Amino acid sequence: MKPRLRALPPLLLLLSSLLATACSQDGGTSQPAPKKAPPATHLVAAGEVSRAPLPYASTRTGTLRTRRQVRLFNQEEGRIIELPFYEGDRVEQGAVLARLDDALLRAELERAVATRAQAEQDLKRLRRLVERQMVSEDEVSRAATAVEVARAEEALLRTRLGYMVIRAPFAGVVSARLVEPGDAVPRHTHLLTLIDPGSLVTEVSVSELLLPHLALGQKVRVLIDALGREAHAGHISRIYPQVDASTRLGTVEITIEPVPPGARAGQLARVTLEIPALTTLSIPLTALQQDRGSEYVFRLDDENVAHRAEVRTGTRLGARVSILEGLDAGARVVTKGFLGLKDGMSVEPVGETP
Questions:
Q1: pLDDT grade, residue 64 (50/70/90)?
Q2: Domain segments of the chain as ranges
Q3: Do 43 and 337 touch, CB atoms closer than 8 A?
Q4: What pLDDT was estimated at residue 172?
Q5: Helix, strand, coil % over all residues of the chain, rounded to 5
Q6: Which CATH architecture has domain 102-163?
Q7: Which residues form the YknX-like C-terminal permuted SH3-like domain (predicted)?
Q8: Whose CA is closest to 98, among 80, 123, 78, 125?
Q9: pTM for the model
Q10: Is residue 156 within a helix (H) or strand (E), and if so which, with residue range?
């Protein structure tokens, strides 16, 4: 048994040597390094800067209001004794809208009439006496002046008496009733508001760049949300002379004729303005970018390198926007693929945007 045990160690040493040699051969085998992937190409879509006639149609929102409206005030103080009409009532021109108690003024007028009559009698008597040289010319002159004063006082009271009745200056509808019969009102109190429902207009804001292309009488389409989807005829009745300095927007007044049934002041109106085709330099609207208040595009050169270019834009014309400064006709600009795009980056156009 002892010799067998002594023979085992050399055998184990041989096996260990063979295993070590195999491990060293496996560990020494070198694997080829993986190749680096080529950088990905930045794909974009491009569009052309073109000068061509472009049709323009734009919808602006406004609020209907009555062009003809009057707030009625009393010019004499007094107690209201008659106020026959309420909100929504139609009245004819000249109809009595309000009447104030005029008893005091009538009494003053009667006294003024008597004073004027007495002054006229005194003047006649003095003129007969002056012919007999029984009175002086000065007395006759003072009597004539008294007659003129009495007549003026009478005319004044008649005018004030006329103010006690307030009539409709035009045919229309009462839109506000602010007092009631029996109220004692001081002078210049707002009593009623009268509107002409047949004079509905709306005002919309328009870019200063479009104002030169609009004209009085130009036809427009008006959609009133409360009346459904039917478009109504209208025309430009007024173009305001000033432009807002902060927004660069002007105001255009639109008159609706004829006024559709159911149209009322205060309703929302959508006005569609259409002007002839404008020949202008433009780019696809998707090409325009904004950054800290400035507008810019990425212009492509002949080698498809993108360069940031500041621009000044004008009117939005459908899917395009007019260019006032910064680009020339025929240039190409990036319209899609802005994510990760930087100034000076090489790109590959894969599509064109009309």
A1: very high
A2: 45-55+280-353, 58-67+198-276, 69-100+164-195, 102-163
A3: yes
A4: 95
A5: 25, 40, 30
A6: Orthogonal Bundle (1.10)
A7: 281-348
A8: 80
A9: 0.65
A10: helix 137-162
